[in-house]
């Protein structure tokens, strides 16, 4: 689950960061955002299953953000509105 700090960290309009009070409001309410929504399905593909004494090889889909841990992101945000 995302926290208000995550909202503040990741919601950007152009190059300007959304003010802290709006980020906290976004964490507690619904928002209307105009931008580009991107999604990556996390998948694992076994390339070599390995055997006793031999390590196997797996390929994992990388996500977005720091360390590739997010499966969704919104970019090129042009409008951000908190709905009450």
Overview of this protein structure:
Helices cover 19% and strands 42% of the residues. It is of the alpha+beta class. The model has no long low-confidence stretch (mean pLDDT 76). The strands form 3 sheets. Strands 1-2 form a two-stranded antiparallel ribbon. A two-stranded antiparallel sheet has the order 3-6. A hairpin with an 8-residue loop joins strand 4 (44-48) and strand 5 (57-60). The two termini are 20 Å apart. It has helices spanning 4-10, 20-28; strands at residues 12-13, 16-17, 30-39, 44-48, 57-60, 72-83. The protein has one domain (4-83).
What's the SSE blueprint?
Blueprint: H1 4-10, E1 12-13, E2 16-17, H2 20-28, E3 30-39, E4 44-48, E5 57-60, E6 72-83
Antiparallel strand pairs: 1-2, 3-6, 4-5
Helix pairs in contact: 1-2
Summarize this structure as a short list of keywords or feature phrases.
84 residues; 19% helix; two-stranded antiparallel sheet; alpha+beta; 42% strand
Summarize the structure.
With 84 residues, this protein is of the alpha+beta class. The protein has helices spanning 4-10, 20-28, and strands at residues 12-13, 16-17, 30-39, 44-48, 57-60, 72-83.
């Amino acid at each position: 689950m995302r926290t208000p700090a995550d909202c503040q960290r990741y919601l950007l309009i152009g190059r300007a960061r959304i003010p802290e009070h709006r980020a906290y409001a976004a964490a507690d309410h619904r928002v209307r955002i105009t931008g580009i929504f991107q999604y990556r399905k996390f998948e694992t593909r076994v390339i070599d299953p390995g055997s006793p004494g031999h390590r196997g090889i797996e390929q994992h889909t990388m996500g977005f953000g720091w360390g590739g841990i997010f499966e969704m992101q919104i970019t090129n945000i042009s409008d951000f509105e908190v709905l009450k």
